[in-house]
Write a structure and sequence with these properties.
By secondary structure, the chain is of the alpha/beta class. The chain is elongated and about 115 Å long. Among the domains are: 3-115, Orthogonal Bundle (Arc Repressor Mutant, subunit A); 193-270, Tetratricopeptide repeat domain (Serine Threonine Protein Phosphatase 5, Tetratricopeptide repeat, Alpha Horseshoe), CATH 1.25.40; 304-447, Rossmann fold, CATH 3.40.50.300; 458-528, no CATH class; 655-788, Serine Threonine Protein Phosphatase 5, Tetratricopeptide repeat, CATH 1.25.40. The protein has a 5-stranded parallel sheet with strand order 8-9-10-7-11, with helices on both faces. It has a 3-stranded antiparallel sheet with strand order 1-2-3, with no helix packed on it. A 3-stranded antiparallel sheet has the order 4-6-5. The chain has 35 helices and 16 strands. α17 (458-469) crosses α19 (478-487).
């Protein structure tokens, strides 16, 4: 399948792959068909399939697939290589009766997997049932459920997939398996199976020597098997290992357990409940309950739906929950993601009584906070002495997960750049919960709920200004308040800056600030107050983009229409359309662009209002007049090229129509694919085409404006756009007359006469033809003007 065919394949077949296709990731990656396992091919195909399976029934973006395969070293052909892998996987699955398993979307791909056909889903359902039985004290049912669930594992998750991004996710799955194994053994001990679990615990403690809970469970099992000396040896070995490896003494629970064995605590001789054993005879020391949240915002306004969603995701699920609940708040600069995260965290403090952790990861700055540094801060807050914190990030993550096991903490990770900053900071126990804010969706975190945070609705923007400025001033100028909110793009950061300026200047009217902001050249200067600056927020995000993304962001303001398609980016950057879409997706992931999907699967992108103002500043500062002019010419030439393709599509001819400009942007084949199907494409883009005619005229490119107007007429002969064509002719004719371009004026009049004849407006056609002939005679170029 060619890359364009791949991009337009929407998988409109059956609703889901057949029930006989089973996917396995709890061990080596496997796909089982009725006749046995499927050979999944080359390593890249396995990485792509693993990424899709991990996010089964969800769209996985091209950006995440690129990161999974190439990391930070993606070649220019990465998107094409991914399309090749997906096409190969489609053929492979189609050969086993599942041609529609993988669907294509404008932003990526989605693997459809029916319920029960993924071993991870089977495992999570069984674990949920086992935990329900454990909490209801039905220990026999719980033990059977845990063992059935753990039997789904065939080794470390996705152990044969060579990808750093996949390995990070798989490590989290392995951690969840280990936590469930501990719970299972606790249930076994509660059933009196202490002798049976000793071999398993011995093997586990050798594999995970720093896991204190496993050591403690082995001590209990040995003690109940009348092997007190071995139990105490296990403690001494654990203490020696922890001191040698981490410089840490064993935790309180392990020390109390040793004391109970030495003193013959009778409670240890009895089968325990599935809850963590508590040794009597020595009072438990209170563990630190860190409270690291920043101050909540007193005038927090709106976001009721978002708040409700976050709270439901973090606190719902009950005993059925098997994984740590993670909510990722995504949004552009100034949308208030951090304020929302902190506000919800304060609302939920009572639901997480063991503490709240917070760290700003500075994901969009040059000096980011690494996962190792964040873990160091967390461990200190949890009471670990600085000298006892290990050096490596993996070791710190192990100590962190062990310290918070069976505790209920809320962790807020603010401004994450990507999954690699987050994965090591996730707890292993589902009693805790995590809120992440990021410009990117972080879709590779398994089970994470993505909650987009956009501009405020107008009524909430006005309410926020009312809180800051005061109700009297807002009610006195309601129309100007709406204008102020619009000029701020309804962004909380900009609204707060504008409100603070008004609050500090009680003698100003709202209309005064509206007048200042109306001038785009001054708007970002005006949106700054007391160290808070909208431009700075945008600059931090802008500087974190790659070079192509920064340049395309600047050049997009050259186009007069709000919504643009990938072909526009291709013309502005002078690259292939698929490369342009990669760059547009990067801007979308960084929340500089809004994204929508039009009927027919067309992806469209739009700059936010304040981002457009910022991009215009960067365009003036970083692109020379010659570079700006060249980019605009490439864009206008692309419109001409595509109009020629529309004409070919309507006339069903292969020749290039007379009068069209030489191709510089797209080959005929590429242009034909972009505009197919013709009627649907032109319906989507006809406003863009008309705007291009006007833009060429305004830029003084009279010849281009005339060419575009004539091309619009030829391209739409079989389409119902007569009024649209008339407007294109009017714009080009006015431009030609202003410039004194008689040849251009004649060319437009010839085109207009053709339309008049088609509409049976004979008198108009005769008048236009006579004037065109008169002008052509004056310039002595009858054929040239007519063909123009």
């Amino acid at each position: 399948m060619s890359q364009v065919e791949d991009l337009h394949d929407t998988g409109n077949g059956a609703d889901a792959p057949g029930a006989s296709m089973e996917f396995r990731i709890l061990g080596p990656l496997e796909v089982l068909a009725p006749n046995g396992g499927i050979d999944l091919g080359a390593p890249r195909q396995r990485i792509v399939l693993a990424s899709l399976v991990l996010q089964a029934n969800r769209v996985v973006s091209f950006g995440h697939l690129v990161e999974a395969i190439y990391g930070d070293n993606a070649p220019p052909t990465s998107r094409v290589q991914i399309q090749i892998c997906v096409s190969a996987l489609r053929r492979l699955l189609a050969g086993h009766g599942h041609p529609d398993a993988i669907q294509t979307y404008p932003t990526g791909y989605r693997l459809r997997v029916e319920a029960g056909n993924l071993d991870l889903h089977q495992y999570e359902a069984l674990i949920a049932e086992a935990r329900q039985a454990r909490d209801a004290r039905r220990l026999t049912d719980a033990g059977r459920g845990y063992r059935t669930a753990l039997g789904k594992w065939r080794g470390p998750a996705l152990r044969d997939v060579e990808s750093a991004a996949i390995r990070a996710i798989a490590h989290g799955l392995d951690e969840r398996r280990l936590a469930a194994t501990e719970e299972c053994i606790e249930v076994d001990l509660g059933l009196g199976r202490h002798r049976e679990v000793i071999p398993e615990l011995t093997e586990l403690t050798m594999a995970y020597p720093l896991r204190e809970r496993l050591r403690g469970l082995l001590m209990i099992a040995l003690h109940r098997s009348e092997r007190q000396a071995d139990a105490l040896d296990t403690y001494r070995d654990a203490r020696r290992t922890l001191i040698d490896e981490l410089g840490l003494e064993p935790g309180d629970w392990l020390r109390r357990l040793e004391h109970g064995i030495l003193t013959g605590d009778p409670t240890l001789a009895q089968p325990s409940t599935p809850a963590p054993p508590v040794v009597t005879g020595q009072p438990a020391e209170a563990e630190p309950a860190p409270r690291l949240l920043p101050t909540d915002i007193s005038d927090f306004t709106g976001r009721d739906d978002e708040v409700r969603l976050i709270e439901e995701q973090l606190t719902g699920g009950g005993p059925q929950r098997t994984a740590v609940p993670v909510v990722v708040l995504t949004g552009g600069p100034g949308t208030g993601k951090s304020a929302l995260a902190v506000h919800v965290a304060h609302r939920l403090r009572d639901r997480f009584p063991d503490g709240q952790l917070f760290v700003d990861l500075h994901g969009r700055r040059t000096e980011r906070v690494s996962a190792a540094e964040a873990l160091q801060r967390f461990l200190r807050a949890l009471g670990v002495p600085p000298g006892a914190i290990p050096d490596g990030v993996d070791e710190r993550a192990e100590v962190f997960r062990d310290r918070i096991a069976h505790r209920r903490l809320l962790i807020v990770l603010d401004d994450a750049a990507g999954e690699s900053q987050v994965v090591s900071l996730l707890p292993g126990d589902c009693r805790s919960a995590v809120i992440v804010t990021s410009r990117s969706p972080l879709a590779a975190i398994p089970g994470a709920t993505n909650a987009p945070v956009g501009p405020l609705p107008p009524q909430h923007a006005v309410a926020l200004l009312r809180h800051i400025v005061g109700p009297d001033r807002v009610d006195r100028e309601p129309g100007y308040v709406l204008d102020l909110a619009r000029l701020c793009g309804h962004l909380p950061l900009a609204l707060r800056v504008a409100g603070a300026r008004l609050a500090s200047r009680p003698h100003w009217y709202v209309a005064d600030l509206v007048d200042r902001l109306a001038d785009e050249r001054r708007r970002l200067d005006e949106l700054a107050h007391a160290g808070i600056c909208v431009r700075s927020s945008l600059t931090f995000a802008y500087e974190s983009l790659c070079g192509d993304a920064r340049r395309l962001l600047r050049l997009l303001v050259l186009v007069s229409r709000s919504w643009v398609s990938p072909w526009v980016g291709a013309a502005l950057l002078d690259v292939a359309p698929d490369r342009a879409q990669d760059v547009l997706d990067k801007l979308s992931d960084a929340q500089f662009l809004e994204t929508t999907q039009e009927p027919g699967g067309y992806a469209r992108y739009r700059l936010h209002e304040l981002v457009r103002v910022f991009a215009r500043e960067r365009l003036a500062a970083e692109e020379s007049p010659a570079e700006r002019h060249a980019a605009l010419e490439r864009y206008l030439d692309a419109v001409l090229t595509l109009l020629a393709a529309v004409e070919r599509g309507n006339r069903r001819v292969s020749r290039r129509p007379r009068g069209a400009a030489p191709i510089r942007q797209f080959s005929d084949q590429t242009a034909d694919r972009i505009v197919t199907p013709v009627e649907q494409w032109y319906e989507l883009e006809h406003h863009m085409v008309l705007a291009a005619v006007r833009q060429a005229a305004q830029a003084g490119l009279v010849g281009t404006s005339v060419e575009l107007a004539a091309a619009v007429g030829r391209a739409t002969e079989a389409l119902p756009y007569a009024d649209h064509v008339r407007e294109a002719h009017r714009i080009a004719l006015s431009a030609a007359r202003r410039a004194g371009d008689q040849c251009g004026e004649a060319a437009v009049l010839y085109a207009s006469a053709t339309l008049s004849m088609a509409q049976l407006r004979t008198a108009d056609a005769v008048r236009e033809l006579l004037r065109a002939m008169e002008l052509s005679g004056e310039v002595d170029d009858v054929h040239g003007c007519a063909e123009g």
